[in-house]
Amino acid sequence: MDIANSTVSMAEWNSLIEGHMNDDEPITNLQDGGGGTYDAVFLGGGAAGRFGAAYMKAMGGRPLIIDRWPFLGGTCPHQACVPHHLFSESAALLDRQRWFSDELFFPPFDESRASILDLVNLFRDGRVTAHAFMNWQTKEQLEVEYVVNAPGRALDPHTVEAAGQTFDTRTVVIGLGAHQKPLAVPGYDLPRVFDWATLVEDLDYEPRRCVIVGGSKVAVEYGAFFQAAGCQTTILSRSPLLRTPNLHHVDEDIRRYVVDGMRERGVEIIEGAQLTEIKGSDGAERVIATGPDGETLEFETDFVFNGTGEAPNSAESKKWLGVATGDNDEILVDASMRTSVEDVYAIGDIIGAPMEMFKARKCGMTAARNIMGEPIEFDFSEYPDFLHTTYEMSWVGLSEEEARAAYDHVVVIQMPPKSVDHDDIPLPCAEGTMLYAFAKPGLSGFQKCVIDGESRRILGCHHVGYGAKDAFQYLDYLIHRPEGLTIDEMGQMNELFLNPEHFIQLSRLRGGRKDLVDL
Predict the structure, then answer these.
(1) CA 53, CA 66: separation in Å to the nearest integer?
(2) pLDDT of residue 167
């Protein structure tokens, strides 16, 4: 289906995408029929490929995106980040209703109204709108050519095949994403063993108990959602929760507050556990594991959720082009996104951790700028991070433990203070936690700022609550710039009171001291 010379409205895109979800007819938006030479063909139209192609077009280049799905945007709007945010917001609302059941203006909490299936169906029914917008915007506003609903294949670094055509290009940019690693135990392939992708595709019943395997972000976020929606949840993790290798700089006090809060809400968390088998006649019904002391554990369940992490989709690219890969199957790139093969770049999840949206979009842009002759490097080893339980949990920079290992004089300003019982102080509080602060102070959140007492520079910020996540994008820039950010400079900022993270006013309370001490 050629739409290059047609104007397809958002409403029409909705129908067009729905109609092509189960067929293999390509949708093409090609100028001059795809003839001539492209500056880059982006294999994969997820966040990395779409943003990289858009940036290249803005620079005056000619990119082409090829994607196997009938839409652009990749897994984020289809199965990953967008449903996760919908489910996490729902978990927070359900959590508040449970805590305030039949108090103030809250009605008695009706357990039967909490439904995982209803929310999964809500997402499935609405997700095509995001797809339609990305297809429309990429064609009409960004003016980028694409072939969707057709897998692409690189024949060499300068020739790509898709939809029965071959395309000439100066470079190939690989952005084919990642997939969930399967559970390596008997029964891993039984029905009702879900992951973040298959849950939203295949769930067709209301579960009331589940077992999650893994200690990753995904395990924690979906575990909090399942429990809040009335599904009794057990998490089996080999390592302490939120201590997996990809979760750098998580502060121990913050981690304990979050994990203890999940337990208080009824989640069963077993750290040091090893899954050994999944059993069932019609699907996953029983989970067998080894406990931290070597004991055998057994759990009845309505489904198993795999939260053990993802692996890059690199096998085809390695076969096609011979690109070098690492120990975790990630395509190896330099700071300019170049692979081991000349004129071949790789971007997004396929180059490994962190598998985060900021990295996908920015490394797509980095590849585009280098291809267009603007040398630039991208170091994504340090970055702000977050996850959701029934709270937002955000962090950037060093944890207190990391700071004390690297600096002689570490100062901590935090809320509540270390000497005060959390249930005795209605702080921190701001929008989203005001009801908790006044009625249930221990639920009002937690925050910490870590400072080098000698240079007065802020080393790390950590927050559990609501509404502070956006601030961490700017804190990341400020504390990692060459001159850093001092407690005194923080105190000079203008806060919008009540501001969720409280760091500005805490800095004012301590910044006047020549010799900094904890607060």
Answers:
(1) 11
(2) 98
Nearest by Cα to 354 from 312, 395, 399, 413? 312
Residue 416 identity (one-letter amino acid) = P
Shared domain check, 19 and 163: yes
Of all residues in the chain, the percent with pLDDT exceeding 90 is: 97
502: Cβ–Cβ under 8 A, 6 or more apart, which residues?
415, 427, 428, 430, 447
Region 58-82: mean pLDDT is 96
DSSP E strand boundaries for 68-118: none
Q: Which structural domain range is residue 452 located in?
A: 391-510
The residues carrying an active-site annotation are 72, 76, 81, 131, 497
Tell me the CA distances in angstroms from 467 to 394, 464, 470, 500, 506, one per residue in order. 10, 9, 7, 6, 18
DSSP 203-246: --S--SEEEEE--SHHHHHHHHHHHHTT-EEEEEESS-TT-STT
Same domain, yes or no: 233 and 335:
no
**Residue 519 counted as domain residue:** no
Write the CB contacts of 135 (distance below 8 Å, at least 6 apart in sequence).
Answer: 8, 13, 16, 17, 71, 72, 148
> pTM to 2 decimals?
0.96
Statement: residue 175 has pLDDT above 90? yes
**Residues 451 and 345 reside in one and the same domain:** no
Q: Is 104 left (phi over 0), alpha (psi -120 to 50) or beta?
A: left
